[in-house]
Every structure is written in structure tokens, then in C-alpha cells.
Amino acid sequence: xxxxxxxxxxxxxxxxxxxxxxxxxxxxxxxxxxxxxxxxxxxxxxxxxxxxxxxxxxxxxxxxxxxxxxxxxxxxxxxxxxxxxxxxxxxxxxxxxxxxxxxxxxxxxxxxxxxxxxxxxxxxxxxxxxxxxxxxxxxxxxxxxxxxxx
Length: 150
Fold this sequence. Notes:
Number of domains: 1
Number of strands: 5
Strand order of the largest sheet: 1-5-2
Shape: flat
Order of helices and strands: EHHHEEEE
Number of helices: 3
Mean pLDDT: 86
Helix content: 25-40%
Radius of gyration: 26 Å
Structural class: alpha+beta
CATH architecture: Alpha-Beta Complex
CATH class: Alpha Beta
Strand content: 25-35%
């Protein structure tokens, strides 16, 4: 098994006209999922950049099928990340002859797929570790002074 090399297939889209921060929100949802699950998640996402991520996923599956002879439904998204691309700078006229800078951000989306290994190798939902419950900290009450009868 050590001699067998697992193939990784990748696809990337460069200079996508979306901010990397917005694209990372979408990519986080598909990381570690199988291709059919990832397609379903992207199909129901309301974010515009989900269409671009779906294109990259389709391209990666096509690369796996055409170049490596792998079945598309038997692949899992082992890595999906978004890097920052060049920023296009524009300006908008403002009051009193001033200008405001407009930054049109771009990003590079990369998706890597690999064949599904044994069931225990697939990423499951992270287990919630139970922490022992601590008693709430007691607040110290100020000492009450007794009023003298006068």
C-alpha cells in the first residue's frame, strides 16, 4: 500500500471577480465532502461566487475523468482554498474635488480532488468534546454593616 500513489486532481480559476473573503465563505462548505454532496451544497447556495466555485469543481471532475480515468462520483474534495489575486484600482469623484478609491478585488480559486479511501479515512463531522461543567464563580458579597439603633 505504501507503493501505491494516490492521485490528486486539481483545477483552478484565476482572476475571478469576487473578493477572496466572500469566496472563502463558500469554499469552506465543500471542503472534505464528496463531489455529489459538494455539488448539492453549491447548487443551493445563494452567494454569487458559488457559481464560479461550481465551475472549478466541474473542471476538476472533468480532469479526473479524462486524464486519470477516475469516476467523478467517487471523488472527495481533499483541499479547496482561495488566494488573493491582483486588485484593480478605480476612483470615484467626491465632494469638493476629492476622490474615493474603489478596490475591485480578484481571487484565485483552487480545488483538489482525490479518490475516496476507506470509510474511516473520510472526513466526518468534528466530534464535540465534552468539557466538564464548572460551577459558576461566586461573587463575593460585601460585608453588611449593622446599623446601630440611635
